[in-house]
């Protein structure tokens, strides 16, 4: 579950985080814009849905600042996560702090309050893409700290996620329930390392992403180490005010 959640968070990041009005053309949204993506398993069955609505767009000295409301729903359309996030574009480069996509931790009965500690790089996308281009890698860690020593010992190892080998490999037309889009095709690899109670586990995967000017991320496919499709995400609704 932890692996799937982190992959979903990365997809969510690339889905709703790459934005800038008059700064980065791939996500030229306006106040009130609604973007919906649906996650499917390898057999095409709905697993979850994520919806973003732009609440405000403000110009800054170097670009754009946007506030958005993000809601995640399970496969039964029950809300499981909601958060307000801030997104920035500076000098044509979009930068997103991935900690803003981590859901708040609940109180653990008898264990004391837990806190999520995030450290790492922003995931960046430039305003211009070209086939053959390599994009910047990102590494970020998530740790859970608690005032209960036993809980800290169990969870203190945390999780490190690396997104690397980000490349623009082509251009294609992609059709989803939201329409047909001319897209840049990107590929990247993801490595997730967890350490709990001294036991280290490593999960590796690869992804293909289609990114369109104006509409943002149109589709993402996630593959395991053997190259087998594990899940995919599609743009299922897009309302630009």
Characterise this structure:
It contains two helices and 13 strands. The chain is mainly beta and 241 residues long. The protein has one domain: YmcC-like fold (Beta Barrel), CATH 2.40.360.20. The chain has a 13-stranded antiparallel sheet, with helices on both faces. Strand 2 (46-59) and strand 3 (63-74) form a beta hairpin. The longest helix is centred in the N-terminal third of the chain and has 15 residues, at 2-16. The N and C termini lie far apart (36 Å). 32% of the residues are buried. Residues 13-21 and 104-112 have low confidence and may be disordered.
User: Quick one: biggest sheet?
Assistant: 13 strands, antiparallel
Q: What percent of residues adopt helix (DSSP H or I)?
A: under 10%
Number of helices: 2
Going across the major beta sheet, what is the strand order?
6-8-9-10-11-12-13-1-2-3-4-5-7
Distance between the termini: 36 Å
| Approximate shape | globular
Structural class: mainly beta
* Beta-strand proportion: over 45%
What's the CATH C level? Mainly Beta
Question: From N to C, what is the helix and strand string?
Answer: HEEEEEEEEHEEEEE
| Named CATH topology | YmcC-like fold
Q: What is the arithmetic mean of pLDDT? A: 81
The number of domains is 1
- Unreliable sequence segments: 13-21, 104-112
What would CATH call the architecture?
Beta Barrel
Question: Count the strands?
Answer: 13
Rg, Å, rounded: 18 Å
């Amino acid at each position: 579950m932890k692996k799937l959640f982190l992959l979903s968070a990365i997809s969510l990041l690339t889905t709703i985080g790459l934005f800038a009005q008059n700064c980065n053309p791939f996500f030229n949204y306006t106040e009130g814009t609604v973007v919906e993506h649906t996650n499917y398993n390898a057999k095409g069955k709905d697993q979850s849905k994520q919806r973003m609505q732009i609440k405000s767009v403000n110009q800054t000295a170097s670009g754009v600042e946007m506030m958005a409301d993000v809601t995640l729903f399970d496969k039964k359309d029950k809300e499981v996560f909601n958060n307000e996030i801030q997104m920035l574009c500076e000098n044509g480069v979009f930068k997103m702090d991935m900690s803003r996509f981590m859901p708040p931790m609940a109180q653990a009965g008898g264990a004391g309050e837990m806190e999520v500690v995030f450290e790492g790089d922003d995931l960046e996308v430039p305003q211009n893409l070209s086939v053959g281009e390599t994009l910047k890698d990102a590494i970020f860690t998530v740790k859970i700290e608690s005032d209960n020593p036993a809980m800290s010992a169990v969870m203190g190892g945390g999780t490190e996620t690396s997104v690397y080998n980000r490349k623009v490999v082509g251009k294609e037309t992609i059709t989803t329930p939201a329409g047909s889009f001319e897209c840049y095709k990107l590929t990247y690899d993801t490595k997730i390392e967890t350490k709990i109670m001294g036991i280290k586990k490593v999960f590796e995967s690869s992804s293909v992403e289609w990114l369109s000017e104006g509409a943002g991320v149109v589709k993402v496919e996630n593959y395991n180490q053997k190259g087998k499709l594990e899940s995919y995400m599609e743009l299922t609704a897009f309302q630009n005010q």
